[in-house]
What we know:
Structural class: mainly beta
Strand content: over 45%
Largest sheet: 14 strands, antiparallel, barrel
Shape: elongated
Amino acid sequence: MKSNRILAICILLISVGFLNAQTTIYDANRWMGSDLNGTARFVGMGGAMGSLGGDITTMGTNPAGIGIYRSNDVMVSFGFDNTGAKANGTSIDKFHGSFDNAGFVFSTKIGNSTALRFANFGFNYRRMKSFNKSMLMNGVFNTSQTVQMADMVNLDEYGDFRPWEEGALSSSDAFQNPDLPWLGIMGYNASLIDPEYGEPGEDGKVPFKGYLPYFASGDAVSQSYRSKESGGIHSFDLNGALNFYDRFYIGATLGLYSVDYDRTSVYNEDFTDKDGNGHGGYTLGNDFWVNGSGVDFKLGFILRPFESSSFRIGAAIHTPTYFSLTERNTAYIDYDLNEDTKGITRPFDSRGRDTEGEYDYKLITPWKFNVNMGYTIGSSVALGVEYEYSDRTAAKMKDPDGYELGQTEDIKAMMKAVHTLRAGAEFKLAPEFSFRLGYNYISSPMKSDAFKFLPVNSMRTDTEFSNPGATNNYTLGFGYRGSSFYVDMAYMLNTYKETFYAFDSLDLPGTKVTNSNHKVLLTLGLRF
């Protein structure tokens, strides 16, 4: 799982100057990319409308698509989805309603004989990404999260033992010590890790040479994890597009973003020795929130190279999105350990010390490049295909003062370029009725051996992480177009697999999780 462990240690040496840097590459990955969402027509065609245009959602892919409009448009979209995750034979399904899309386009005709035929302006709100997800899993292994707790306290950034004065972890101001990890402090106060004493110094003090985890070699560790995530990324697009000669279209979009994310998780371990005797256990609870905003700019064009043909080609470039984010976390440990374990008396059913932290940072996403083609056959068939490229290894994370964080090196080491393919078709069954099919593929953004690294002085206590695979979206849709009123409906099956780890350990096997999302989307609109 950790073939790049040595590389991570090198990254850590680079990161040593950024004390208490909390965020991880898994947080950065969460804010990059987008779901297939927008109008029902856009979704029904797999999002492959960059060159076909004439749909409000294209503001976020190829801004020139708004230049195709010859009339005003106002619309609203909402949907219903069922998200599910299946692991170890256990599955969780949740039903959600959502407000997905609302926008308008004002189209102004300039003239029939002038070079500039139309000047169009528009606004679109889109729920760009949804974080709604629940997970539940369990297993029995021979390793424990207490090993990670002990290592965070025991080892410095160079992998050497860290000497501590007795009482350092139990002092009232331990959580204010910039050299101490909060997870280690909680583990110590919950009696999950035990001190190993070194030789007395010349001053007579006995330093802690290291820490041994509570769990013993040979113990079976029963583990369970459950979590609930909610929130999303909301985009607000302001667009302007021009139509020249009805053959060349150019457009630009200013994108504004709002981020809200909430995760509640509970992780439990129960210890049993080789003779089947229970040693008790503990529960670690974490709450994690993120709020923030972002901005970017998109520029695109569409060209109909042959006057006698409806074939179109297009391209768009998206600048990096500049996010400013604030994350907060709280945590607790409930523990119940046998009093005779390791000869140390433990209180029963006690509660470890709660923690709370807050951290601000900036994320600069990579550039994004989009090329697309579209073709119509009379007024009966429309075909579109798109390819998009974004190298996530180029993303950067900075502190509020603009200094680059060590996590930027983690991103280079553990993330990958993302390739997105979109294809779609629309068929007119009658002048007013249409049928649509689409497919959307997004490659994995993470290397399979990536892992979550918490610094030795981290305020974060959530150790879980997942390495996602490729995402596949399968769509179909129907549409009705009247003289002014229109209604579209789409169905989407979204599916991807991921490998889940409750904590970072060479001995912890990953849990295979299959995620699926069934979504029905409805758009109501008026053209005039």
